[in-house]
Amino acid sequence: MIFLILFFIFSCGLYFLFFSSGNLVDWQLKLYLKLGLLKIENCRKDAIQPNSLDVHLGNHYAIQLNDGSFEEIINNEFVLKPGDFVLAMTQEYFYFGPTLHGVLQGKSSWARVGLYVESAGLFDSGFEGVAVIELTNQGKAPLLLKSGQPIAQMIFQRNLPVWKSYKQKGHYQGQRTATQTWMKNVIEKAKQKVILEKELISS
User: Fold this and answer.
1) Which pLDDT score is estimated for 68?
2) For every residue of 95-120, which 3-state class applies, written as one string?
3) Rounded Cα gap, residues 159 and 95, in angstroms
4) Cα–Cα distance between 188 and 197 in angstroms, integer?
5) What is the DSSP string of 114-163?
6) Catalytic pick from 41, 77, 128, 134?
7) Contact 99, 17 (CB under 8 A)
8) Rounded distance, CA 201 to CA 118, Å?
9) How far is CA 89 from the centre of its chain?
10) Catalytic-residue membership of 134
11) 91: Cβ contacts below 8 Å, ≥ 6 apart
12) Rounded mean pLDDT of the chain?
C-alpha cells in the first residue's frame, strides 16, 4: 500500500513537472536548463524571474525608412525617436524542444516611458535562433537603447509534443540578426505607393 502511495506521488510529481500545461516558473526553468531540456546561449543566471526570463538587447538593428524598406546598422547604442519603428534582436539564442514554446512580452519599466515591444507571435516548438523584436516609440521623447539592456521577457510554456515542429516549416529558423520579413512583396507595394505619391505631387 505504501509503495502504491509513493508511486502515485512520484507519478504526479513527474506529470506536473514535465507534462502538465502551464508556464515554467523560476525553479523549473533552472532545472530545465540544467537537464538540457531547454538550451539558451548567452543566458544569464540573474535574468531568471519568477515566471519568465529577461532577454537582453543585441547590437543589430533594421530601421524602417519612409518608403517601407529597411536600413541595417550595427551599433551598441541606438536612439529610437517618437513614432519610429525598428527591428532588433536579443543576445540570447534559443533552442526550443518539441514540448516547449515561448511568448515574448515587453517589460513594464520600458512601457512606462512609451516603448512598445511586439514579438510577432509565438516562438513555436522546434524554433532555434535569436528572438527578433519589433520596437516602436509611442512616447513623446527619444529613447536611448543600449546593447545588453533587459528589453523584454520570455515566458516558456509547456505543451504536448508537436507533430510538425518549426524546424520543418519555419521561415526564420536559425536567425542570428534582426531578420526582416520574408514577405518581400509587401515592402515592394509600399515602395511603389511612395513613388506614385511623389509623381502625383511633382505633376
Assistant:
1) 83
2) ECCCCEEEEEEECHHHHCCCEEEECC
3) 15
4) 14
5) TEEEE--SEE-TT-EEEEEEEEEE-SSS-EEEETT-EEEEEEEEE-PPPS
6) 134
7) no
8) 35
9) 8
10) yes
11) 42, 55, 56, 57, 58, 130, 147, 148
12) 86
**Encoded amino acid at 59, one letter:** N
Kindly report, residue by residue over 125-183, the tens digit of the pLDDT: 999 999 999 999 999 999 999 999 999 999 999 999 999 999 887 888 999 999 988 87
Q: Phi and psi of 22, rounded to 5°?
A: 125, 170
C-alpha closest to that of 53 among 153, 151, 133: 153
Kind plus residue range of the DSSP H or E element containing 92: strand 85-95
- The band of 67, judged by pLDDT with boundaries at 50, 70 and 90, is confident
Q: Does residue 182 sit in helix, strand or coil?
A: coil
9-19 average pLDDT score: 51
Pairing of strands 85-95, 115-118: unpaired
Q: In whole angstroms, give the CA distance from residue 125 to residue 18.
A: 15
| Closest to 24 measured CA to CA, from 9, 35, 162 | 35
Q: What domains sit in the chain, N to C, each tagged with a CATH number?
A: 20-159+166-190 (2.70.40.10)
Per-residue pLDDT tens over the stretch 87-100? 999 999 999 999 99
